[in-house]
Amino acid sequence: MSNKISNKTLAGIFGVLAFIFLFLFVWNGDKNERSFRNELVTIDTASVTEIVIMPKAKQHGEVKLFKDDENWRVKLDEESSAPVADDKIAGLLTQLTSIKPQRLAARGKDKFTDFQVDSTGTRVKVYEDGDETLDIILGRFNFQQQPQQQGMPNFGRQQPKMSTYVRLGSDTDIYEVDGFLETYFNQAPNAFRNGSIVKSDYQKWNELTFSYPADTSFQLIKMNDEWFANDEKTDSAKTVNFLRQLANIRNNGFIDDVDTENLGASDYKLTIKTEDGEVIDINAYFKQGKYIIHSSQNSEAYFDGNNAKLGEKIFVGMSKVMPDK
Fold this sequence. Notes:
The chain is α+β, with helices and mostly antiparallel strands. It has 6 helices and 17 strands.
C-alpha cells in the first residue's frame, strides 16, 4: 500500500512539474513570440500634418516640421519658419514607413542606455490631423562587416550591414532595424529647409543674361541648338557642363537677418529665360557687410554667396564657356 501511495505521490509531483514546464516553456514562449511586433510604424503618410524631431544635433531640442495648407515648413524660432522642400518630407516619411523589425535586440528599461534608446537617442513624433500616431526613439547605430560566404566568388569587399536600434516611446522592447536612420533625422532645422536656388531643365533654356558692373556683362543665347556668348560660338562641352550644374544648384548657407527693405538694386544679376516663357532671376548684393544671393525660385530664402563658393558658381565670366586659347 505504501508503495502504491508513494507511486501516486510521485505521479502527482511529476504531473505538477510537467504542467509548470508546459506553462513556462510552451504557453509563455508562445506569449513572448506573440509579443514580438511585426510592425513598428503604421502611419498614413497622406494624413501626416506634423513631424517633431528631438535630435542630438540640437541637444534634443525640438525641430518642428508642419504642414501649412499644402506646403511644409520648419520652425526656426518662436516667431519664424521657413519652407521645406517636398522631397525632404517625402524622404523622411519613406524612412519611417520602411522601419521593419529585424530582431528583438533586448527587453527592459535596464537596457535603454546600452542601446541609446533613452534620452540620448533621437526621438521622432508624427501627428496626423493633430493626433499623435507615432512616437519612436532612434538609438545606437550598428555597423557590421558581412563575412565572405564560403564557396562564393570574391568580387571585392562585402557590403557592410548597417542597422539602428529603436524603441517605441510607450514600449520597453528594443528592436534592430535596417538602415542608418541618424542620417535623416539627427539634423538641425537648416538641414530641412529648401536650399534650392535654381531647379530647372537647362535643355529648355534659350537665353541667359549676366548683368555685371562696367563692361563685363554678357549674354548666352541658344540658336539652332548651339550656344553663343556675345555672338561668339561657345565650347559646347564646357557650356553644357556649366548649364547642367547651374540647373540644379543648391546651398545651405542661409542668411536670416537680411534687411530686405533696404537691399536696393543688385550688384550682380543673372536672368534665365526658357522656351516655355519662364523667367528665373538670381540677384547678388554686397550690402550690410554680407554677400547676399536671392533667387526668384525660392523667394523666402537668402543665401551667403561665400558659402561653398556659391557666388563663383553662378556669376561666372564669359571665359567659363569659351574655347581655350
